[in-house]
Amino acid sequence: MPNKVIKSSNDRIDSSEQTTLRLSDDIGKMADRIGTMADRIGEMAERILKTQEIQAKNIELTQKSMLELMQAMTKQMEFSNKLMELMFNKGGNMTDKQLPTWQLSKSTEPAKKSE
Fold this sequence. Notes:
Elements: H1 2-91
């Protein structure tokens, strides 16, 4: 009887060792998978940072372009205002017959059609 108890205990220990070894192997595999996922996450983070750097440069260029465009439009409006003021002041004493053709549509006479 004591031999049966010892044999049973030894079988349980062997089984327990095998289970522990399988668990250890599974944990190792899971750790490898986690490491691989961490590497992928790191690569993705690097790509995100690179994209943000590119986007920041693009935003900066767009802002500079918009500022230049607004400055050019402001200069154009200033020039147009000066031109209109000059035309208004010079044209104020003209009769309808002396007005340039582009202004005839604003006069009391109907604009002439060119043939």
